[in-house]
Known about the structure:
single chain, 4 helices, mainly alpha
Amino acid sequence: MLVVEAFVVRYSNLYTLGMFSRFCIFFGGLAGSAAVAMAALAAHGLASLSPAALGAVRNTIEMQGWHAIALVAVGAWLPRGGLLARLAASGFALGTLLFCGGVYGHELADLPVGAFAPVGGTMLILSWLVLAASAFRRSA
């Protein structure tokens, strides 16, 4: 029981997370569950795709999974990461939507998605750099 109490005291700030932190964790959870569902679809229901298209979908599933985890982690980091962490989280959310949506739309539905995937991918790269910079934020 003492271990549980120590854990609750140490991590009690998880109960007081702000709305944006909760959004990041919520969106990360949704993106993660969608990645698992897409992985199941890719494993069992996309046999008609070309090997190149299936490879692109699998790579996108992996990217989606990693960025879902990143969103959950950034959601927990937000209280200390400040504005840069908020920018990184926003970039992860929007970049994941654009990148994954662009690849899935193009490969699975042959939709004209334009530059969604490259713009989303660039946002993801920049978000990682902004997140790294948030580690050097001065405490208020």
